[in-house]
Write a sequence for this structure.
């Protein structure tokens, strides 16, 4: 249920990022709205709640982007995997660690999207341009991402409450 | 026996290696046009169309509201302007007719045997590093992979993936795109590829070739994709390094990709164009 819900949320964020935000002049050089979602999904203790939406959303973004196939799926997978690994021994969702995790996630995403083409000898932006965009993305993601993660958490709490209510009603009927 | 930590590190290294190899292989085919490659186009494309429509609709209502507020004030002013405008319209009609005749003569060869399909841009690339757009025309409208996409100002890009009702267009400012180009003035030939900062690079131009700042680059038609003569951009800078056989030429595209809203898909290549590269 959580996976399905956040798959829908991911779809909405993709539409927001590719169709709505460009209309108001906010381009992808500002931030990737899906990075906070990947961090949030990484915070989910159960694998089945996080991994399926991460892969499906990654593939969806891949097919909408001019990036070679698999780049976004890879970037999102590694963000999810690192956060999921970190929650084993760190309070990643906490007030102090969450911005750090979000900033780290942006860096991981750009390492994949920018690093692999450079590694393969393909042309890329100049270091100055790349640094400028990544710094912007980190700044926006730390601020906006924290709000988004708080929103995702609230949505998840509502879903859990609703599920408990449904279960209680069923129990009463039986 | 290996400890759990060592196994985890070895596993991660193995996974990263496989991942890089996989991406290296997938990079040979810049865009996947089947199966998973169309996944987002099929699922998200219709939603992008709907959202764009809704925003256009709301925008129209908003503009009309302001129009009504200002209409009364403008009415008086416009009445005065009407008399002047009527006289100018007669004059403009004559100019327009002359313009059409001249235009049809100049562009006759270009327009005569090409069918163009208008399409609206419904989505932009989610990444700052790659440059593509999603258009609201697909296989059902006759769009196929490889068709050039243009606007009246010049070349916009090429269709790289198609679903039933949507298509992905790789813009000429993307590093994975390439256009065989000529300098209009000197006929020096090279390849235009995308570069950072919404610009292009004119590659493989010999040091002896005559290329100057401000020169217009046009499609040569030799790549079998883009119709010959369509504008690409103007030379912004020329650098002739002391070593090497080529010069470094930076190009500013004639198309403003930030404000790209409607495009034309060139449906059929001209019969005079070579087909060897298709």
């Amino acid at each position: 249920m959580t996976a399905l819900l956040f798959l829908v949320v991911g779809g909405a964020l993709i539409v927001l990022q590719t169709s709505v935000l460009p209309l108001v002049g906010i381009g992808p050089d500002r931030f990737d709205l899906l990075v906070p979602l990947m961090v949030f999904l990484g915070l989910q203790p159960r694998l089945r709640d996080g991994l399926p939406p991460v892969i499906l959303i990654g593939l969806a973004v891949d097919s909408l982007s001019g990036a070679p196939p698999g780049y976004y799926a890879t970037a999102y997978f590694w963000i999810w995997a690192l956060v999921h690994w970190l929650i084993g021994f760190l309070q990643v969702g906490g007030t102090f660690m969450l911005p750090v995790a979000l900033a780290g996630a942006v860096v991981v995403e750009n390492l994949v999207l920018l690093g692999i083409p450079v590694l393969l000898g393909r042309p890329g932006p100049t270091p100055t341009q790349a640094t400028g965009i990544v710094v912007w993305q980190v700044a926006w993601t730390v601020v906006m991402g924290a709000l988004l993660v708080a929103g995702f958490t609230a949505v998840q709490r509502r879903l859990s409450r609703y599920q408990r209510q449904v279960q209680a009603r069923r129990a009463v009927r039986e | 026996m290996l400890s759990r930590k060592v196994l985890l590190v070895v596993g991660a290294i193995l996974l990263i290696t496989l991942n890089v190899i996989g991406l290296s292989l997938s990079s040979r085919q810049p865009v996947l046009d089947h199966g998973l490659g169309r996944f987002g186009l099929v699922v998200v494309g219709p939603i992008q169309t709907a959202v764009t429509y809704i925003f256009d609709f709301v925008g129209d209502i908003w503009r009309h509201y302001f129009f009504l507020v200002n209409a009364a004030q403008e009415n008086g002013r416009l009445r005065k302007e009407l008399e002047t405008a009527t006289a100018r319209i007669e004059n403009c009609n004559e100019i327009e007719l002359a313009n059409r005749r001249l235009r049809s003569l100049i562009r006759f060869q270009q327009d005569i045997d090409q069918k163009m399909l208008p399409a609206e841009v419904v989505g932009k690339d989610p990444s700052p590093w790659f440059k593509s757009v999603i258009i609201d025309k697909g296989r059902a409208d006759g769009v196929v992979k490889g068709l050039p996409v243009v606007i009246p100002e010049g070349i916009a890009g090429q269709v790289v993936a198609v679903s039933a009702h949507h298509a992905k267009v790789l813009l000429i400012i993307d590093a994975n795109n390439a256009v065989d180009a000529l300098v209009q003035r000197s006929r020096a030939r090279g390849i235009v590829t995308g570069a950072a900062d919404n610009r292009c690079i004119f590659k493989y131009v010999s040091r002896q070739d005559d290329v100057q700042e401000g020169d217009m680059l046009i499609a040569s038609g030799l790549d079998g994709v883009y119709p010959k003569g369509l504008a690409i951009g103007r030379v912004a800078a020329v650098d002739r390094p002391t070593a090497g056989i080529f010069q470094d030429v930076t190009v500013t595209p004639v198309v403003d990709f930030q404000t790209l809203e409607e495009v034309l898909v060139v449906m059929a290549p001209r019969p005079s164009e070579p087909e060897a590269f298709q």
In short: The helical segments of chain A are 2-20, 34-42, 47-64, 71-86, 97-119, 127-173.
